[in-house]
Fold this sequence. Notes:
The complex is a heterodimer of chains A (253) and B (272). Chain A has helices at 5-22, 24-45, 56-86, 88-93, 101-127, 136-163, 167-172, 174-179, 195-202, 205-217, 225-252. With 253 residues, chain A is mostly helical. In chain A, helix 3 (56-86) packs parallel to helix 6 (136-163), helix 5 packs across helix 6 and helix 6 runs antiparallel to helix 10. Chain A is elongated. Chain B has one domain (11-231, 242-261): Rossmann fold (3-Layer(aba) Sandwich), CATH 3.40.50. Chain B contains ten helices and ten strands. Chain B has helices at residues 49-56, 78-84, 100-110, 116-126, 142-154, 172-187, 199-205, 223-227, 244-252, 255-261; strands at residues 11-20, 23-33, 38-42, 64-69, 72-73, 85-88, 160-164, 191-196, 208-213, 216-221. In chain B, the strands form two sheets. Chain B has a six-stranded mixed beta sheet with strand order 6-7-8-3-9-10, with helices on both faces. Chain B has a four-stranded antiparallel beta sheet with strand order 2-1-4-5, with helices on one face. In chain B, strand 7, helix 6 (172-187) and strand 8 form a beta-alpha-beta unit. In chain B, helix 3 packs across helix 4 and helix 3 runs parallel beside helix 5. The N and C termini of chain B lie close together (8 Å). The A-B interface holds A 1, 4, 7-8, 11-12, 15, 18-19, 22-23, 86-88, 90-97, 252-253 and B 54, 57-59, 61, 79, 82-83, 85-87, 89-98, 102, 106-107, 109-112, 152. Chain A: This is Transport permease protein. Chain A: It holds the Pfam family ABC2_membrane.
Amino acid sequence: MSKHFLGDTTVLLGRSLRHITRSMDTIITTAIMPIGMMLMFVYVFGGAIDTGSDSYVQYLLPGILLITVASGISYTAFRLFLDMKGGIFERFQSMPIARSAVLWAHVVTSLVANLISLVVVVLVALLMGFRSSAGLPAWLAVAGILILFTLALTWLAVIPGLTAKSPDGASAFSYPLIFLPFLSSAFVPTGTMPGPVRAFAEHQPVTSIVNAIRALFTQQPVGTDIWIALAWCVGLLAVAYTFATITYRRKIS
Amino acid sequence: MTTRPTTEPAIRVRGLKKSYKALEVLRGVDFDVARGSILALLGSNGAGKTTAVKILSTLLKADAGTVGVNGFDVATQAAEVRESISLTGQFAAVDEILSGRENLVLVARLRHLENPGRIADDLLDRFSLTDAGARKVSTYSGGMRRRLDIAMSLVGNPPIIFLDEPTTGLDPQGRIEVWRAVKELADQGTTVLLTTQYLDEAEQLADRIAILHEGRIIVDGTLAELKRLLPPAEVEYVEKQPTLEDVFLALVGADSTQATAAKPARTSEDSR
């Protein structure tokens, strides 16, 4: 049946992309929370935060982009949950289609939806005065890191999407992910944090990813941060993919 | 299409067992469904009807026993079984955000059929959904949703169809619409395995009735055979009262549903 994998995935992808274009509100909702945070931090707290960079939005955007993805993938889990619950998942599984196509369609949809949200957030940041002198290669590198990060979190989201008993359960897992940037260098430099907090902040994935993106935007040398960031993303992706696939196999057999 | 050895029954179940942890749901189920017939699997809630249907449609693995569907073994030839069947599960498996037509086109594409648009239009016509075809399914009534659900199962004319409690939760008109659709199916030679907890539904639709109770089939026969299990009928004079269903349908007008669902079938003559 795997000869139909690409065709079936494309058909199912068309289906879930229609879901997105017909309920743009989910993408807007996904983007509103990070945009709200960005407004609040830039115009309320930002003036009092000394980051060493010339404008706070400049400093803040990378972290906000990660929060955008973290809140976006809760919809991935939610959409998958709805399919599981509504019976259409069973219909697909009882049809002669490539069995993994159902999952891949959701994954690619998640990638597309998150990229749209990310573009919206970047546009708002530009309106708020974000400027980058980075050239095309640096922007592509930023896009690459964000795509890898989105894929990793998407496969993570597949697990609650397949196993949750309620819609709240399907999306609740994303709350800690949304909170994680607060304990990193996303909002404030880690230098002023007390010892244990600082140790945690400096060794969790968000800090290295944020630092790498920030360096790319400001055309600073990325140093080792980018390798640590890539290692985190690839590692998380591999682990999440493995567990998601195991969960899926268990569900369909 | 798949090859069909015609002597064999369309569905053959022998010694089927399934437990969920300590709970034994199926404890050795045997039954056959002859080609082109309707078997009603009757049982109360939790009797294991849905479990049986899920095993027959390759969604669940059995603990023991053999199941042949269209001559293929569900455990070792799942892909061939899936080519031969369609499942209409307990909850209408339709996409609420897509239109009725888009739902049918989706299934036709996934079955790798040519001309999905024409197949969709034919089925919309056959199930009296042409006018609603462009509308989002979330605006459909329960009966329309079920009809679309069954129409989606007919895409590609699979020789065997599983209907798991197709009328649960429907109003009387919706029920009649679905019954008519099921009878039409059988008229075209499709084999139907129907589960239900409504005795009148089994009586109305089925050629044979199998009663699943505590994990086993306790009776399997035609309605006439089942009736013979009880002492012969005594003649009593009882005033014929209209049932509440008669009254309800008379008041709200069953004609409207009759007019909409009685079209002849067209799409499946060329199928097999």
